[in-house]
Each structure stands twice: as structure tokens, then as C-alpha cells.
Amino acid sequence: MANYKAADSKREQFRRYLEKAGVLDTLTKVLVALYEEPEKPNNALDFLKQHMGAAGPETPDVEALRLEVAELKQKYDAVLEENKELKAKLAQYEPPPDEKRTE
């Protein structure tokens, strides 16, 4: 019997924690929005993620930023390659470290 009360106590503590953190209110609001949705979505989990902010905003701005990041990565890789080439050319024209010391 004491084990049952301990489990209830932990469960009540967890419920209070969720309530205090605002989790219960948020879940309730999202579930009510799903309930009131005239046409139920095919994937209820995606609906929950979208309305809770887990999925993130999928706007044209986000897609534009993704394209910009991809372009910048390509430019970065090109600059790294150019840097390697220029260092190799520079190494051809620089005297070896031994010759620098004798001067």
C-alpha cells in the first residue's frame, strides 16, 4: 500500500511540475485546436509539432535562407581551394628556410 502512495505522490509532483511549466496549458490549447479543426489532418503528430513550434516555420524566407547557405558553402569551398593553390604557388617562389638564415 505504501508503494502505491509513493507512486501517486510522484505522479502528483510531476503533474504539478508540468502545470507550473505551462506544459499542460500548451498541450490543452493544441489539442483543442486539433479537436476544433473542421477537416482533421492526415497526420495529427505533424499538426501538433507545427502548432507547438517544433516543426519550425516553413516560409519562403526559410527556403531562401537555405539556398543562400548552400551558395555560401560552395563559395567557401572554392575560396579554400584557391587558398591552397596560392599557398602552393607562393611556396615555389619562397626560398627554403635554410637559405633565409644564411642571408
TrEMBL record:
GO terms for molecular function: transcription coactivator activity. The lineage of its organism: Eukaryota, Metazoa, Chordata, Craniata, Vertebrata. The keyword Nucleus applies. GO terms for cellular component: nucleus. Residues 62-89 form a coiled coil. Belongs to the AMY1 family. Keywords: Coiled coil, Nucleus. It is found in: Nucleus. InterPro entries: AMY1. The keyword Flavoprotein does not apply. This is C-myc binding protein.
